[in-house]
Design goal:
By secondary structure, the chain is of the alpha/beta class. The protein is built from 19 helices and 18 strands. 48% of the residues are buried.
């Protein structure tokens, strides 16, 4: 089985979010299960020289972008046993950031065309082209309208995975032909409301549509989660399924992680207490073993649940013996809030604004509890990483949080959950977690249960392979 995994970012080459983790890990998991999975992504200007030096130039071609023909260099690299094809065009990709440019629509139209145009030149005809998010949503559209009947292209199936439905690739109808190179007869495929919607086009044209958790696949049929696309998803629900993301358990491994203070494991968890003491020192907090530390590693934005935290955290800090270790950046409102409580409770709140990867790992390893009360969370990786490091999550039951964390009230769960998007429901979950922490024997059992949770890519890879096989057999 041959799969070409098309993504706008992938580790170790370029990353801005969770997609890069998935694109760097899932192909490796598939490869281990004898799927010839290769990745195609842009050759960004931000890719470090240490990676560029290992790349091999394959060929250069000209790629049509509507009435233009643009240079496309094709480079090959290896990482984790997986072959990567990197698409070079300095006009589109030699920039300081991956996204947020005025011509993103044209940049990823070029990339989507290039994904298809390079196939005759790389000696690799995939059975499946697996696309991800709006940046590659034009691949199934172009395949359906321009490539599917061409010699050498027949029989390829396409899948699009929605990592976050909020980002859909919306553009004015006037650029349908001039930028995307699509005729008026294709308008019905990509038109939604008063604009061209690339995600909608992918849902219409792809053979299958997946999301990154089972619960999120159900949620996006609801207008509250769908950002307007629920009518299209309901009409094409026969294509839709959810497959939960995993994490790279070799990368996130407290037994070998060089970024944490002390290594430990599920079998020998004693050093986790040393990590807690070192974390308290790092954040300028009193070193108190009996005081529970709640970790937060996140973008500080409303949909991550920070309006709930803002509502009740003063009460938590005033009435309980607890410490916070917070790492993140985002909206001014929430950055200011954490500055205020850090100033008001200097012995209870440690704050670092920004994102420092090694510090994030120190928080996972050193905290007792990990707070993640998201309004929506397609999959979420942080709660799985927290489990891997034995930090017991408190989460709202949404998306992948619901699929990975179960409440320990039954004596079997791996965290604490709440259902309603309500600050006092969250507060109740926090209080239950703090009460559980006071029973050292039960808490130690809960931490060991968290450490033993398996959120590796193995199960997810098997589900993707089953999906691929079902498509190929059709």
């Amino acid at each position: 089985m041959k799969v070409l995994y098309a993504a706008s970012e992938a580790l170790p080459f370029a990353a801005s979010g969770g997609l890069a983790d998935v694109a760097g890990s899932l192909p490796q998991a598939l490869k281990r299960r004898r799927v010839d999975c290769r990745v195609v992504m842009p050759l960004y200007g931000t890719i470090r020289n240490e990676f560029r030096d290992t790349m091999k130039f394959i060929t250069s071609i000209m790629v049509p972008v509507s009435w233009r023909r643009q240079y496309c260099g094709v480079f090959e690299a290896k990482a984790g046993g997986v072959t990567y094809y990197l698409i070079d065009n300095e006009y589109y990709f030699k920039r300081n950031t991956l996204y947020g440019h005025y011509d993103d629509g044209e940049r990823y139209a070029f990339f989507s065309r290039a994904v298809l145009e390079i196939l005759p030149h790389i000696d690799f005809k995939p059975d499946i082209i697996h696309c991800n998010d709006w940046q590659t949503s034009l691949v199934p559209v172009y395949y359906t309208t321009n490539y599917g009947s061409r010699e050498g292209y027949t029989g390829i199936k396409t899948i699009v995975t929605i990592h976050n439905i909020q980002y859909q690739g919306k553009y004015g109808k006037d650029i349908l032909g001039d930028v995307f190179g699509l005729g008026e007869e294709t308008m019905s495929l990509v038109e939604f409301g008063d604009c061209v919607n690339l995600m909608k086009g992918a849902i219409e044209c792809a053979n299958k549509v997946t999301t990154v958790s089972n619960t999120y696949a159900e949620e996006i049929l609801d207008p509250w989660f769908s950002h307007g696309l629920d009518p299209i998803l309901k009409a094409r629900s026969y294509k839709l399924s959810g497959i939960l993301n995993g994490i790279d358990t070799k990368n996130y491994d407290p037994e070998t992680d060089k970024d944490i203070f002390f290594n430990y494991s599920a079998k020998e968890p004693e050093n986790k207490a040393k990590n807690k003491a070192a974390l308290q020192e790092l954040f300028g907090l009193p070193v108190k073993e009996e005081t529970p530390v709640i970790g937060i590693v996140s973008r500080l934005v409303s949909h991550k649940g920070f309006d709930l935290i803002k509502r009740v955290m003063w009460e938590v800090l005033e009435t309980t013996d607890v410490q916070l270790a917070v790492l993140g950046s985002g909206d001014w409102e929430y950055e200011s809030f954490f500055k205020e409580i850090a100033a008001a409770f200097p012995e209870k709140v440690g704050l670092r604004l920004g994102f420092v990867p090694d510090m994030a790992r120190k928080i996972y390893a050193g905290s007792d509890i990990f707070l993640m009360p998201s309004k929506s969370e397609p999959c979420g990786l942080s709660q799985m990483v927290a489990l891997r490091y034995g930090s017991v999550p408190i989460v709202r039951e949404t998306g992948g949080l619901k699929d990975t964390i179960t409440d320990s009230g039954d004596g079997k769960g791996n965290g604490f959950t709440f259902k309603s998007y309500d600050a006092y429901d969250m507060l109740d979950a926090i209080r239950r977690a703090l009460a559980a922490y006071s029973d050292k024997k039960k808490w130690a059992t809960l931490v060991k249960r968290a450490l033993k949770c398996d959120n590796s890519w193995g199960k997810s890879a098997k589900e993707y392979i089953a999906l691929y096989e079902s498509l190929i057999s059709e």
